[in-house]
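Page 47, continued from p. 46.
Same chain as before, 106 aa.
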Amino acid sequence: MIVTTTENLAGRAVTECLGQVFGVVVRSRGLSGNIIAGLRTIIGGEIKEYTALVEDTRRHALDRLVTNASAMGADAVVMMRFDSGQIGQMMNEVVAYGTAVRLAPL
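Result:
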């Protein structure tokens, strides 16, 4: 499965647009992770617990995007983007979205 942030792929033509596709993940740090992260805010610098949370969540959202696109019969997802937000004070939401398409060689 090709996933790209661009609209066009070199050497390939979009033959069919299957529609929007997405992968959504909502995650929360455990209590101990939040405590450690809170202590890190006192001394400053990168909060590695939250960095790891966001990286893992993005990977998981992208995996779900690919699974959903495959179920639609897509060869690729074009114009892929990430969006993220916070739900309450303890949860992080990440959405990977794009357009599922079928491709053919030029």
